[in-house]
Structures are given as C-alpha cells and as structure tokens.
Design a protein that fits this description.
This protein has 149 residues and is of the alpha+beta class. The chain has five helices and four strands, in the order H-H-E-E-E-H-H-E-H. A four-stranded mixed β-sheet has the order 1-2-3-4, with helices on both faces. Strand 2 and strand 3 form a beta hairpin. The protein is globular. It starts with 7 loop residues before the first helix and ends in a 15-residue tail after the last helix.
Length: 149
Amino acid sequence: MGTDPFTPEQRSAVMRAVKGRDTTPELAVRRILRAAGIGYRLGGRGLPGRPDLVMPGRRVAVFVHGCFWHGHDCARGARQPKTNATYWTAKIGRNRARDVATQTVLEAAGWRVVTVWECRMKADDFSEVLVAEIRGQAATVSAPGTSSA
C-alpha cells in the first residue's frame, strides 16, 4: 500500500473531478482569442485527438496542455509523482506518444497544430505570441547556416 491519504473510493472521486474541458488555462486562451477577434469552435469532434479549439477556415487545431499531464520539459512537467509512480510515469509517456501521433496525423491532413503549454501562459507577451501564431504570423526560425533570402 502506498502513501496515498485517500481510500481508493475517495481517490476515484478526486480523479473524476479533474476536468478535461473548460479548464482555467483553456478559458484564458479562449478569452485572448475572442479579444483579438479570432473565431473558433470548441471540441474538435471528428478530428484526431479532439483539439480543444478548432479554426476550420484557418485549418488550425489548438491543444491546451497541462505541463504535468503531457510531460512538458519544464519544472512542472519534469515533476515525478510520489504515489503510484510507475503507473503515472507510464501514463504520461503514453500521453506524450499520443500527442506526437495526433500532431503528425493532423499535419498530414493539412492542419496547423498549435500547442499551448500551461507554463508558457505566464509570460508577459503570451497573448501577442499566441495571436501571432494562430494568425500564421509567428516568426520563423531558420536552421543555422541557412539564409532566409
């Protein structure tokens, strides 16, 4: 038995309460896009991975990812679970693999995938960067030794 302070029934109730949509970060992204006059649809039903937001006219699919749940390479994403570590490490690994596969399939179908990481939302210029990326105006970075001319 682990160090979980909850009974299995209580833990199950806690995990059921974890929201999959209308999360605080997702609502913040929606507010930013609405303020910029960018329309979107919710849920991405029918698309691989069910993106959080979809802009069919722009062919953009937006995923709002929590750093821990999707194994981001930031401090929060690198945190190791203390309870049931084997399960959670495998689960997060599967999430990461699924995210990569989803992005590959969407891009092959002509969609541009924008992934919003929870940690990056704290940056002062996050709104401007997000809007530019959605509009397809994000700065492109060329590989070292290549010229953009």
